[in-house]
Amino acid sequence: MEIKIGVQHTPREIVLDSGQSREEVESAVSGALSGETKVLKLIDEHGRQVLVPADRVAYVEIGEPVARKVGFGAL
Fold first, then answer.
1. Higher pLDDT residue, 64 or 26?
2. Is residue 22 part of a domain?
3. Does residue 69 sit within a domain?
4. Residue 26: inside a domain, yes or no?
5. Residue 19 maps to which CATH number?
6. What range does the domain containing 13 cover?
7. How many independent structural domains does the chain possess?
8. What count of other Cβ atoms lies within 10 Å of the Cβ of residue 18?
9. 51 near 66, Cβ under 8 Å?
10. Does the predicted TM-score (pTM) go above 0.90?
11. Mean pLDDT computed over 7-27
12. Which of 46, 49, 63, 75 could be bridged to 2 by S-S, CB 3.0 to 4.6 A?
């Protein structure tokens, strides 16, 4: 699923595709914004970690999971 993270005082947002479930992402975001952790930590499809200081997170958009289309006839 696609995740967009807006960071304060930064003109561009962070966009990543993650294999994590919606519940895992929501839990990580809630924990960071409530002060449980100081860093929002997410993992993309390639296993890379994305770390954002929790006090700099402006917004998080969580997209819908999308099935990958395969083949020449897929639209």
1. 26
2. yes
3. no
4. yes
5. 2.30.30
6. 2-62
7. 1
8. 19
9. no
10. no
11. 93
12. 63
